[in-house]
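User: I'm curious whether this sequence folds into something compact or stays loose and floppy. Could you predict its structure so I can see for myself?
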Amino acid sequence: AERGEFTQRAFANGRLGLTEVEGLADLLAADTAAQRVQALAQMGGAAEKQFKAWRGMLQRALAHCEAVIDFGDDEEDVDADAVFEDLLPDVRLLACEVERHLRDGRRGELVREGTRVAIVGPPNAGKSTLLNLLARRDAAIVSNIPGTTRDVLEVQLDLGGVPVLAQDTAGLRRDKGRDESALGDHLACGAPGDQAVALVAAADRLERLDPVEAEGIRRAARAASKAQLVLFVADANRPADAAAALAQLLGPSTGSPGDGSTGEKAPQGGLDGG
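Assistant: Here's the prediction. I'll summarize afterward.
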């Protein structure tokens, strides 16, 4: 027999419905316990029974409506208003059930396809350490040198039976070169002495970003914008770095690393402090 031939025959002969066949395919491809449980429920006909019930309600309402349209003018004992009033509660119930089904937060899709989690934050905040802890292996290089992680590092995880794609990203920080340009503008405009000293001190604490790290920061912002969950990791002893990283991550939708924006829209999944 060819691959899937018996399943195809069962579907063609009406022994399996389309959703049951999809459940079987999901079961064969399942990697986690949650995926197997969901696939078994669908393979057992849970979705098929629900859809058939909705189909029956629609067919009943359609049959009554067509009867009123076809014979309402010919039969004196047919009260169109009464028929429609009798159908209205069922139609409203059906609409509520379908709307509730569609508002499930894409739970089934997230279990089937996996949840994308982006780990973001300033440099040397512990992002790579957290990824290694979750992966239970040395998946990412850990160093006290800022900018060690340059690209998005992805690791497939099984967390509580749910497939998760964890992403370690480059640390978010500003570019000294851009801040020095802004500093020059402030001094040219005659900034007060104390303010000028503060600006110089702030610029000295920054470092120039090389093009590779700048691209890594852009990719980090892109990963955060596409993730279902954004996990923000920061060092409690360096609140200024955390604030700068947050400003960069949640800044305007256009720009480049170093001018306070990321070139990406703010993440949809929200932020969890770390």
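Summary: The chain has a mean pLDDT of 77. The chain is about 55% helix and 10% strand.
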